[in-house]
Task: structure prediction
Amino acid sequence: MTEADGGSGTERAHPRVDAHHHVWDLAVRDQPWTADIEPLRRSFTFDDLRPQLARAGVDATVLVQTITVADETPEFLALAAAYPEISGVVGWVDLTADDVSATLDELRTLPGGEYLVGIRHQVQGESDPQWLLRADVTRGLRAVAEAGLVYDLLVTETQLPAAVDAVRRHPDLRFVLDHGGKPGIAAGQVEPWRSNISAMSELPNAAVKLSGLLTEAAPTWTVDGIRPYVDHLADTFGAERMMFGSDWPVSTLRADYHDVVAVTEQLVAQCSPGDRAAIFATTAITWYQLQTAAR
Result:
């Protein structure tokens, strides 16, 4: 097994992992958030993604929730059971419900339930900037920790301070910050994102995804325009707590799948081979406890 186009051409000790992508079928349910995004206003299936994974040399993926509908998670688990490339599912449950623990237990009994590795909620859509710190949400996060799962943080830049507090309050819960904390790349804005990222990186139970950054950039993005943000993530979290994620198909708004992988390779080219292996494989495998070798 060799590196994908643009890689080193050397043998890889681990499968290459895409730690963040989505699928949806508009024939099953609407995706209202795409209403004003015409290029995304269609179905994107895993069969659409598979040939692109092969071209980019990606062996394993984490399928991440798209909408706050309970039925989606069992559907994603069934996909994981059917497709060997899907090594983990980050699903959704209502963290504010009284029966979060029971719901998580039930999900694990379903077909593909063994691939449930994390939970996510679209906190970015919540009007309360302190939503993550609410008592009912705190109870739900404790249930996620007790289940041994990861919690993916999808927050806006203004919600980062509360996210830092949530990570600090739950030292026994592994957190993954999606999309690098959504920095203001298009506007060239660095603060307060930079300071909040530094604060979160000091907490050992937090990792970050190099995902969605092209979408945060302007349509006329350049690698050099994104580089300062990636460099700060690397300087603070380190490769052992960074993981690559494509954010496909949202990423198609800026580039095709292979180009997203190639751009990420460029952005981390200065890292050591061991650090690049962490970013493209071992961090995700370790953090999500993926069973990639078993497939």
About this structure: Confidence is low (pLDDT under 50) at residues 1-11. The longest helix spans residues 273-288.
